[in-house]
């Protein structure tokens, strides 16, 4: 489910299950808000680099060959769960 650019930056930060869970959560929120309903999180959804201790306004996008829509994600950890709220940039 990771786009190649996400794999690249994850290799440079101390990542793990927390980063992967957060990225999945953001992509799920994007899928729900975006009208195209692209099926592949790996191909059509990208989350920019972020640190787990700073959740404010994570840049992300949904794109295909014809368009690119940019969003901001707000991520919150509640106990063992992540909540992502996305809005158009």
Shape: globular
Q: What is the helix fraction of residues, given as a range?
A: 25-40%
Q: According to CATH, what is the class?
A: Alpha Beta
- Determine the CATH topology: Nuclear Transport Factor 2, Chain: A
The low-pLDDT segments are none
As a percent range, the share of strand residues is 25-35%
Instruction: Please provide the ordered H/E string of secondary-structure elements.
Output: HHHEEEE
Counted up, domains total 1
- Taking strands numbered 1, 2, ... along the chain, how are they ordered across the largest sheet? 1-2-3-4
Q: Helical segment tally?
A: 3
Number of strands: 4
User: What is the architecture at the second tier of CATH?
Assistant: Roll
Give a structural overview.
With 89 residues, the protein is α+β, with helices and mostly antiparallel strands. The chain has one domain: Nuclear Transport Factor 2, Chain: A. Helix content is 31%, strand content 31%. A 4-stranded antiparallel β-sheet has the order 1-2-3-4. A hairpin with a 4-residue loop joins strand 2 and strand 3. The radius of gyration is 12 Å and the shape is globular.
Summarize the structure.
This protein has 3 helices and 4 strands, in the order αααββββ. The chain has 89 residues and is α+β, with helices and mostly antiparallel strands. The two termini are 23 Å apart.
């Amino acid at each position: 489910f990771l786009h190649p650019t996400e794999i690249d930056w994850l290799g440079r930060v101390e990542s793990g299950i927390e980063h992967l869970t957060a990225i999945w959560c953001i992509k799920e929120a994007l899928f729900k808000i975006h009208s195209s309903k692209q099926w592949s999180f790996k191909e059509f959804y990208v989350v920019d680099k972020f640190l787990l201790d700073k959740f404010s306004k994570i840049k992300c996008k949904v794109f295909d060959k014809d368009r690119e829509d940019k969003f901001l994600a707000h991520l919150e950890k509640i106990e063992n769960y992540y909540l992502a709220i996305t809005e158009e940039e």
